[in-house]
Automatic annotation (TrEMBL):
<dbReference type="InterPro" id="IPR036047">
    <property type="entry name" value="F-box-like_dom_sf"/>
</dbReference>
<dbReference type="Pfam" id="PF00646">
    <property type="entry name" value="F-box"/>
</dbReference>
<dbReference type="InterPro" id="IPR001810">
    <property type="entry name" value="F-box_dom"/>
</dbReference>
<feature type="domain" description="F-box">
    <location>
        <begin position="14"/>
        <end position="50"/>
    </location>
</feature>
<protein>
    <recommendedName>
        <fullName>F-box domain-containing protein</fullName>
    </recommendedName>
</protein>
Length: 250
């Protein structure tokens, strides 16, 4: 009686997935593995596998960093990663305001638009400021933030092609002691209605925003916090304790 031979390791779907799960978390790893064969590509493209891959590796590698200048920014690559900076026209005139989920965000005040750039995929999107801001002299756009639309389905670095993201625009009415915000959703290519709140001080733009759950936070020059809950569309200023000492360096 002949003995039934056991399948080769790479013929076992569960075992193959465990092997692929341990590929290094570099932008090129999954892409190179996906061209081996159709079967491998099917596993690597599955959202369940992508979520497991991200969870397994936890923190993605540092591919580089931006050095923000008075005007524009320089990008320094690390870990052998290269980015085509020439694909970003007028880079020296752009204001870098945010980096999240492998995406960089720039404000272009001259063209009244936001540039969303994925340096890994080499993809960029230009989003015009909300129409109600056109020809307005009583308000100032200060900063912006970028978010992936569904955090549970966030792709591995380099897999996002800017198909679904959100932008949060923040500014102020200097003569009215008010701050404003507006949410953009790429799926519908629309800006939601503007939301305002009382704020005596401007956003301290030299400090990055902080994302806590569904809430974005910005530091104000008063050392208070400007908070926007994009889930509930709640925009408020959280004042620091009266007896707290806080100093914001200009």
């Amino acid at each position: 009686m002949s003995r039934r031979s056991s399948p080769a390791p790479l013929d076992d779907g569960d075992l193959l997935e465990e092997i692929l799960l341990r590929l290094p978390p570099k932008p090129s790893s999954l892409r190179r593995a996906s061209i081996v064969c159709r079967r491998w590509r099917g596993i690597l493209a599955d959202r369940r596998f992508i979520r497991r891959f991200r969870k397994h590796h936890r923190k993605p590698p540092l591919l580089g960093y931006f050095d923000r200048k008075y005007e524009g920014a320089d990008f320094t690559a690390m870990s052998g990663f290269t980015a085509n900076m020439t694909s970003i026209p007028r880079l020296c005139h752009l204001n870098l305001v945010d980096c999240r989920h492998g995406v960089a965000l720039f404000l272009d005040h001259a063209l009244c638009e936001i540039l969303v750039w994925n340096p890994i995929a080499g993809v960029r999107r230009h989003v015009a400021f909300p129409p109600w801001l056109n020809n307005r002299c009583d308000c100032v756009v200060e900063t912006s933030a970028v978010l992936c639309s569904a955090s549970d389905d966030l792709p591995v670095h380099g897999d996002c092609h800017l198909s679904a993201f959100k932008l949060v625009l923040v500014g102020e009415y200097p003569n009215q002691a008010k701050a404003f915000t507006c949410l953009y959703e790429s799926k519908s290519d629309t800006w939601r209605k503007v939301i305002t709140t009382a704020a005596r001080y401007a956003v301290y733009v030299n400090r990055p925003n902080v994302l806590v759950g569904n809430t974005l936070c910005w530091l104000l020059y008063s050392a208070d916090l400007l908070q926007f809950d994009f889930g509930n569309q709640k925009f408020v200023v959280i004042e620091k304790p009266a007896d707290a000492y806080a100093h914001v360096n200009c």
